[in-house]
């Protein structure tokens, strides 16, 4: 902070010298606070400020001024900071090593870790560049790799996250999966085509046990066509599903494929005819890059890169704020949290190999305004493959943008939770039977899913028997979930169901727009012993727009004829582009009985006040084309009102209002328009 005499400075301002002494006495301390805030990197909170400069600092300095800055993270880690202290890292600098935060602040007097100066945010770097490669022959090279874990969870080749070698390669048939025919017990599979020309004992197997589990374990025995491996799962295998082999030197055949020898501490990589010196290969040096075991902490405005497990770990803490940081290259988790009243706000979290934000216990937490991208996209190198996965009561997840997740966009366990105004795009690409928003089957109450924009649930059929029929859901309320409000969401282009209610009860589905999903909404009761009856479901004021004739609008499924008892379905809008009945019934009683039930409940029980918009061709026949040719969906994915430009022509909404050239949309809303 620049030092000057405050009152001497103020006397130079003409409007100050003309004030009375009493007024001047009041304004002077207020202006002093203003000047202090703007002259220093951050308000000092009545504590001390310390500076760290990796280029020009010296750990023998006192750290109290920019000129006396420290140099290393090791110096910072060993200081007894107190409430209200600020630790500033110089912008444009890179700091190698871990940041370990152990001293707590107090409420209103955080210990703050932030930045000063100009230029790019400071970088805390946990990556190590590997050199001294030695040839092993056939394009394979090795070097020493001294990571602190038995597994290497992430590797970068020229700054690109690269997967370990696998057999078959990912671009082989069936998406790179072999098929097992049967299984024995919990950890042995049989593939009649495997043989034992190569004994895979000691390698890793990655097994698609079910749609939602891609399990990784070390192979302990390979006898004939049988592979036995280390498994912790109790979920039954699905025979005729897929598997592949990884982490073995014998399968390296593509540039950048690698194998980590944990016993010899060697990294082995395939370079082919290329020299390793032409490439930059980086691995993480630490399991955790920023380790926080203190309360009343703020970490703000820093780039954090490279961890074998969690880039930021919060444990046994409360009142911590992680704000406006950029996290990338996390072996498992971008942020791992076990603490109360934690705020995660305004961060960019990208390229995490398992979960972007993992809250194992996070009561009263807030996750807001973050961008989470490219999470869990490498099969066999994650477990959950999820953007945000939280557990705890009184959680708020709002205004986040979550793109390109291998499984769920958001998964949330807990009571009194709000998931609101999030944009979720691209999910269930590695494993499926999950959703853009997934609410697990537990007896939690009062969860609100409000005004989210969800699209492009991809589905992951490779390694399963469901070719072309992937169970990807926009919003998924699973076994025994209850007391949920699903209101005002827009869900489109999902391979499975826009909204799936599975063995759940006491749920309100209101004012949602569901467009071009394989099925727009399903209320599904099956014989799963973990589930319950579908009851007290309210479906009202929703807009359903199926696409091709192969899509369904609203499906009621049950092993019996109890679908009439599911709840209340009324006052909805159906845009009929398929010529099919809006409600489809699926039971175990046969197609004729299903059709009779659908007709009966539509005419006597449900949808007495709903509106059905049949799009007609000039000849008067129901139009069979996809809705993209005849129906527009316009969406505002931002937190501000927007004017959306329309194409040529005149459009009407489902209430008959006419639009030409443009339409105004409120934040996180959408509108279906029919072209006249």
TrEMBL record:
NCBIfam families: para_beta_helix (TIGR03804). This is Right-handed parallel beta-helix repeat-containing protein. It holds the Pfam family Beta_helix. It comes from the Bacteria. Residues 295-375, 387-544 form the Right handed beta helix domain. InterPro entries: Beta_helix (IPR039448), Para_beta_helix_rpt-2 (IPR022441), PbH1 (IPR006626), Pectin_lyas_fold (IPR012334), Pectin_lyase_fold/virulence (IPR011050). It comes from Mucilaginibacter pallidiroseus.
């Amino acid at each position: 902070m620049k030092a000057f005499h405050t009152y001497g400075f103020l006397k130079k301002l003409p409007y100050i010298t003309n004030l009375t002494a009493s007024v001047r006495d009041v304004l002077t301390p207020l202006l002093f606070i203003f000047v202090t805030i703007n002259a220093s990197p951050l308000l000092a909170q009545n504590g001390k400020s310390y500076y760290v400069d990796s280029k020009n600092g010296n750990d023998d300095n006192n750290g109290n001024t920019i000129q006396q800055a420290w140099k290393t993270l090791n110096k910072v880690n060993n200081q007894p900071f107190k409430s209200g202290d600020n630790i500033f890292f110089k912008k444009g600098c890179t700091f190698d090593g871990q940041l370990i935060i152990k001293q707590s602040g107090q409420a209103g007097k955080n210990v703050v870790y932030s930045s000063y100066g100009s230029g790019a945010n400071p970088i805390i770097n946990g990556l190590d560049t590997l050199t001294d490669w030695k040839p092993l022959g056939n394009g394979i090279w090795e070097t020493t790799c001294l990571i602190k874990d038995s597994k290497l969870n992430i590797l970068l080749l020229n700054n690109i996250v690269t997967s370990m070698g696998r057999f078959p390669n990912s671009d082989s048939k069936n998406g790179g999966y072999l098929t097992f025919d049967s299984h024995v017990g919990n950890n042995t599979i049989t593939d009649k085509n495997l043989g034992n020309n190569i004994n895979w004992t000691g390698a890793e197997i990655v097994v698609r046990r079910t749609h939602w589990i891609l399990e990784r374990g070390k192979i302990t025995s390979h006898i004939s066509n049988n592979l036995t491996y280390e498994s912790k799962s109790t979920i039954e295998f699905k025979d005729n599903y897929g598997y592949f082999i990884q982490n073995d030197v014998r399968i390296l055949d593509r540039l950048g494929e690698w194998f980590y020898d944990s016993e010899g501490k060697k990294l082995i990589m395939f370079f082919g005819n290329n020299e390793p010196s032409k490439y930059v290969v980086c691995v993480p040096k630490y399991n955790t890059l920023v380790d926080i075991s203190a309360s009343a902490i703020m970490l703000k405005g820093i780039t954090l890169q490279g961890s074998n497990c969690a880039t930021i770990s919060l444990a046994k803490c409360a009142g911590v704020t992680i704000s406006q940081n950029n996290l990338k290259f996390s072996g498992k988790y971008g942020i791992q949290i076990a603490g109360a009243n934690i705020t995660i706000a305004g961060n960019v979290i990208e390229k995490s190999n398992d979960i972007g934000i993992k809250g194992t216990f996070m009561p009263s937490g807030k996750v807001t305004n973050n961008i989470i991208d490219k999470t869990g996209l490498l099969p066999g190198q994650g477990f959950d493959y999820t953007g945000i996965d939280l557990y705890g009561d009184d959680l708020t997840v709002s205004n986040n943008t979550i793109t390109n997740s291998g499984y769920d966009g958001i998964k949330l366990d807990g009571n009194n939770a709000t998931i609101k105004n999030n944009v979720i795009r691209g999910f269930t690409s590695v494993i499926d039977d999950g959703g853009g928003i997934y609410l697990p089957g537990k007896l939690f109450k009062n969860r609100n899913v409000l005004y989210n924009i969800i699209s492009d649930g991809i589905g992951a059929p490779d390694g399963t028997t469901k070719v072309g029929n992937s169970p990807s859901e926009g919003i998924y309320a699973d076994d025994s979930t209850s007391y949920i409000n699903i209101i005002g969401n827009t869900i489109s282009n999902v391979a499975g169901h826009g909204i799936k209610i599975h063995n759940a009860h006491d749920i309100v589905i209101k004012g949602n727009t569901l467009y071009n999903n394989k099925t727009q909404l399903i209320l599904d009761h099956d014989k799963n012993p973990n589930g319950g009856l579908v009851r007290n479901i309210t479906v009202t004021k929703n807009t359903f727009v199926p696409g091709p004739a192969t899509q369904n609008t609203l499906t009621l499924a049950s092993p019996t004829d109890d679908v009439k008892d599911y709840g209340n379905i009324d006052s909805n809008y159906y845009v009929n582009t398929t010529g099919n009945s809006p409600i489809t019934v699926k039971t175990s009683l046969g197609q004729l009985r299903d059709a009779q039930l659908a007709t009966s409940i539509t005419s006597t029980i449900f949808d007495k006040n709903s509106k059905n918009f049949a799009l007609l061709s000039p000849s008067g026949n129901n139009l069979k084309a996809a809705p993209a040719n005849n129906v527009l969906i316009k969406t505002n994915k931002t937190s501000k009102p927007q004017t959306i430009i329309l194409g040529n022509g005149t459009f009407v909404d489902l209430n008959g209002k006419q639009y030409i050239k443009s339409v105004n949309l409120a934040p996180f809303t959408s509108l279906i328009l029919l072209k006249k």
